[in-house]
Amino acid sequence: MKDLPENVLNLLLLWLAIALSLATAGAHETPDGSKPGSFSLELVFTSHLDASLPERDVFVERQPGSNEVYRITLADINPIAPLFRAARPIPRNPFDAIAIGPHPKGEPLGLTLGEWLGHSGTGTYSCSGGEGRLDTKFAGLVRYGIYSIWHTFTALPATAPFSGYLDVPLGARDESTSIFVADENGQAAVSQTFRPCLQLSDIRTTSLLAINYHSDGKTHAGRPGHFGYNAHVPLFLQLPLRVGLAGSNE
After folding, report:
1. What does residue 66 show for φ and ψ, rounded to 5 degrees?
2. C-alpha–C-alpha distance, residues 126 and 193, integer Å
3. What's the first-to-final CA gap in the chain, in angstroms?
4. Per-residue model confidence as pLDDT tens digits over 29-76
5. Can you give the residue range of the structural domain that contains 143?
6. Is 23 found in the same domain as 138?
7. Is residue 199 situated within a structural domain?
8. Residue 126 belongs to domain with CATH number
9. What phi and psi values does residue 192 have, to the nearest 5 degrees?
10. Is 209 exposed, middle or buried (0-12, 13-18, 19+ CB in 10 A)?
11. In 3D, which of 158, 151, 240 has the Cα closest to residue 204?
């Protein structure tokens, strides 16, 4: 690997970190004996940094007054650093090392990095008789902030060039059932049932759950908004492989 160009080597290392983090993060499946094919998952949402990835949708100004911002890496951790949106939407390609920045600085988000990394979430998901049920609790949210839950898919292994993500709101396709609002303490509990059950990961597709913070206070009728500009993902998790697939829990 020493003979590879540095940028190619960096991308390979980044891809390996993502694959390892997604393989071990998030949801753990346990059988539910009540009905054939039923199962339940314990959910633990994680930040991108905790999964050894850059924070993709919020930015810091490394050089005050430069009007240039960067996605946050482990080298940027400063709990009191103010966060910014980018001046325009930024493509979300985790395999593009250049995408860290610099990007043109947008408006301040009114949050510090410590507050952003304070987001946390746990819960359960079950599937029985073709009906899915999600019960989650979140803390460390923006007080009275508007959020939504998304079911997201991407190809595995990643396409080259990267083909992006498919983002589907949880439940109703108009996003109406995926929206929730944090209370005065920055907490929220979200429970929802829906048909059919969530599609889990398979050997060609990674399936994820993510929460999306709408920094402009608006939702977008079935679309997540513009990432890095008015849509920002603080937490996500990978759903496990479907039962019966190579590498699944069965």
Report:
1. -80, -20
2. 9
3. 36
4. 554 444 556 889 999 999 999 998 899 999 999 999 999 999 999 999
5. 6-50+120-238
6. yes
7. yes
8. 2.60.40
9. -155, 140
10. buried
11. 158
